[in-house]
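Reopening: Putative penicillin-binding protein PbpX still failing for me.
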Amino acid sequence: MTNIGAERFEKVFNKFTNLKEINEGILLIESTNGEFSFCKGYGGKGLNSPFLMASITKLFTTTCILILLEQGKLSLDDKISEHFDKNIIKGIHVYNGKDYSLELTISDLLFQTSGLPDVYLEGKDSVRSRAILEDFYITFIDMIDMVKNLKPHFAPRKGEKAYYADINFDLLGEIIGNISGFKLSEAYKNYIFEPLGLSHTYLPENENDGIPHIYYMNQVIHRPKLVISCGASGGCITTAHELMIFTKAFFGGKLFNKNIFNSLSTYNKLQVSMGPIYYGGGYMQIPLNGVISLFMGKGELIGHSGSTGSFAFYYPLKELFFVGDINQMAKAALPIRLSMQLAMAAK
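Support: Ran it again with your exact input. Result attached.
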């Protein structure tokens, strides 16, 4: 990788931070071997500035599931009814008059193939629409009740369908707690933060835990109650420096057996609103040779983005990692577009 490569990355990042709705941002790019590193901040954001990971948290939840799988404490084929009071989950998935609730498996949740609806975006009183206006707590039981009031999109494991829904990972978070005996914050700490030496990455448990602000267009909003409520699906805080350490470990097999990870690379296309994204076992896959890139890209990105502008992707073709945040809740597609253009600039 030459300096010309760094100049291309800087040009792409500058194009996005010049958008009127972007007030701050941070980008860190590294090669697998660490010989190449590029960092650029905007609006006062630096390598160690905290930001909300949002749905990148799902990679941490996936890590815990894989570690428990490796320890023999669960199977991806386990029915989730084995890990919950049946009265809690009964009625969570009723499709065409049939109740599939007790047939859902851990795999259905991890691969987003359960067909469950997404309370974050769906319904007239969706979590996102409320979050724009106010801060509020929402309990796990509240979320389950909201799901029961929405219609599933298909029967579990129906064809090659996937539907992105936070509730899948909220359920996985509860399962991690039930099996490990740890609170989710402790599970993250024991399985991820301490082994990797991450001292500035944490899952907040109260409003005083240091929860960064979020931008909705040019409005600064502070939603600590909601962030705390998101837990396993989107509540973690990190820095670009530590997110890079984690992302390299996740895709490099440092946290769990690489053979287990290889079994996750079955990808299904997500709903149309998710654009070019496919979903594997706990992470996104974005092919770079499709319509959205005008068929000009090569290879794929694997990793995750967050609805508040965060991103953590690996580009295997060039052995590059892209992590960072552009802190914008109003346009969830921006970090995906940024990551794709960074990959296409890596010539």
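The CA atoms of residues 118 and 323 lie 26 Å apart. If you still see a failure, please send the error message rather than a screenshot.
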